[in-house]
Amino acid sequence: MTASDPRPGTHRDEHRNAHRDAHRAVDAVWRIEAARIIAGLARMVHDIGLAEELAQDALVAALEQWPESGTPDNPGAWLMAVAKRRAVDRIRRQQRLERKLEEIGHGLDDEDPAPEFDAVLDTDPIEDDLLRLVFTACHPVLSAQARAALTLRLLGGLTTEEIARAFLAPEATVAQRIVRAKRTLAEAGVPFEVPEGAERADRLASVLEVVYLIFNEGYTASGGTSWMRVDLCQEALRLGRVLAGLAPQEPEVHGLVALMEIQASRTRARTGPSGEPVRILDQNRGLWDRLLIRRGFAALLRAEKLGAPPGPYVLQAAIAACHAQARTAEETDWARIAALYELLVRLTPSPVVELNRAVALGMAYGPARGLEVVDALGSEPALKDYHLLPSVRGDLLARLGRLDEARREFERAASLTRNLPERTLLLSRAAACAPS
Cα separations (Å) of 115 from 45, 54, 84, 263, 431? Predict the structure, then answer.
């Protein structure tokens, strides 16, 4: 072998590297562009399931071609163009089939009535398509879990495996949930459109519920060995910011973004060195992210400037802002927080909101006042297995010096939570109440 001869395996290594680089490029582009591609296709074919299938076809084409041809200068446009061609082919095949069936029955000529699709594909701004996709994926005909999974799949570009890992669910369960959701939308004839009038407010509430559900699952994981799953929080924040850009005149959208920005600002302070939860009263506020807080305040200001009466997310954002404004836990304006929770209870009455109001009352006016409200919630069926009810009650009892009762409440709370770090914290609080 001469000095100029390639070493054995060189070409094979280069080919393998090209494939690896192409796969990375495809994955990165897909995560960024998936929602736009699916949204544009859904407007064409009026079927979210088919739109995702066509987008996946384009993805497969990229995986086959990019290792040989190289990554295009505009990979998102390349994927969209390929997906649209597949959609046009599908539509034309369907039209030819329908026309032939009609010819058999009526003897019509073979004139091709198929329109020039390419001339009409881009008549609507992509922002309109994305908003349609958001409202369709979050349609209330679906369960909250199905809406969350479908939203992460279509708008977040997450794989089924990633969604399953995020929600600590079997991959097969999540895959089935997504398939059923798309089938339900098709069978229900849900139109690919942005609702208007009174229906828009109801549907928007469904959209915001899904985004906040995703955020909350990341902010305080309902199960597993981690207190938080930051990737879910970040995905919800990204979806919220996108939604705020698509619907800038909706105060509740800005309210939700403000709430998530401010809550996310506490991420670094919410866990200790071993991943254990740290309560907001005990957090090092120097670790709170001031940039996220400023972004949250700006979003809250945008919501308030729109002039509508405050909705539930604007009120919750205002509560979060009270915490963010306090330089120390002692400076927290608990009286204002309690008043905001009073407004929230009137607007959206629920036992969970009332429990949060009890916490604020206990901090503002003493634990006995909070305990009075908590005890009135004891018979609520919705809170029967809700671990935060005995947790809050235990905290109030401990502050009143009723340590034996507090210990039992903390132990009950620990038995109800499925999150291991939270259970550990509750058991340590129970132990602290035991006689020395």
Answer: 14, 20, 14, 50, 74
Contact 129, 43 (CB under 8 A): yes
Cα atoms in the Cβ-side hemisphere of radius 13 Å centred on 89: 8
Whole-angstrom CA distances from 435 to 330, 379, 429 are 28, 30, 13
Partnered with residue 262 across adjacent β-strands are none
Tell me the pLDDT tens digit for each residue of 237-268: 999 998 999 899 999 999 999 999 999 999 99
Contacts of residues 297-304 at CB distance under 8 Å and 24 or more positions apart, as own/partner, are 297/258, 297/262, 297/321, 297/324, 298/258, 299/244, 299/254, 299/255, 299/257, 299/258, 299/261, 300/254, 300/255, 300/258, 302/251, 302/254, 303/251, 303/252, 303/253, 303/254, 303/255, 303/258, 304/251
Q: H-helix or E-strand containing 418?
A: strand 418-419
> CA angle, 215 as apex, 251 and 272 as ends, to 5°?
125
Q: Measured at the alpha carbon of residue 158, what is the angle toward residues 245 and 203, in degrees to the nearest 5?
A: 45
Q: Read off the pTM.
A: 0.78
Q: Which domains does the chain have, with CATH numbers?
A: 12-104 (1.10.1740)
Q: What span, in angstroms and rounded, lies between the C-alpha atoms of 421 and 126? A: 43
Q: DSSP labels for 92-107?
A: HHHHHHHHHHHHHHH-
CA-CA distance, 345 to 245, in Å (whole number)?
A: 29
Arithmetic mean of pLDDT over the chain = 86
Band (100; pLDDT cuts 50, 70, 90): low
419 backbone dihedrals φ, ψ, rounded to 5°: -95, 120
- With a cut of 60, say whether residue 121 has pLDDT above it: no
Report the sign of the C-alpha dihedral through residues 78, 84, 87, 93, in that order. Answer: negative
Q: How confident is the model at residue 103 (pLDDT cuts 50, 70, 90)?
A: low
Find out whether 374 and 389 touch, Cβ atoms under 8 Å.
Answer: yes
